[in-house]
User: Fold this.
Amino acid sequence: MFNERIVNPLEFYTIMIWLFVFFITVLMLSLCYVFLAMRRALERESENREFSALVIDGLEAERRRVSRELHDTVLPLLRNSEASDLIRSICTEMMPPDFDRLSLKDSLAGLCVQFTQRTGIECPWVIEEELDFSPFSAEDQLHLYRMVQESFTNIEKHSGAEHASLVVRCSDRTSQGSILICISDEGVGLQFEPSLSSNTIPKPGLGIRSMRQRAVILGAKLDFISESGNGLMVRIELSLPDG
Assistant:
């Protein structure tokens, strides 16, 4: 016969309490690990955003400096020449718009006009009249302006397109207020390696990197949508600022 051991109720409850304590301890340690991992991720994201802001601020300061140098020292030497018109155009492109005088919507429309005049590439635009960019700071509006401007520069240099377009409208993807900006062309598109997806830019240049940094600062979603030979769409989506 087997000797049966009767478990004391007090002993049973003690074992259950220790198991409960062990479970709670493991749970608390797991939550602490997750919390610390999330905090480190947020700190890295904040550092990346701050670094991107410093880089972009430096870039804008250099744009202003070069524009002033060209305007004040080079342009007076080239009066009444074809080169003087080119220098004025470069200075205009490098200097930021005055958003106190001209709205972002008008500035974007002006970009399309200047782009067509400079390149001969047709560029119609559709900008919803209901859109209000006033909740954005002047710095954020400049980031958006530069992203569109860089997209047009890439079309001019690399696409071989005869037509481009700009669409700025409210996004229908969310119930909250958000804005969608699409810059499209009908050029050669991006030439991808077989292993790369259709929204990945291989070996991005300075212009693409600056666009990505500006998107990080804005908290915007930036996509490059292309199939080789079927043009390229630059898609920028961002939420309206709170308040």
Helices lie at 9-74, 82-94, 104-119, 138-159, 206-218. The two ends are 80 Å apart (CA to CA).
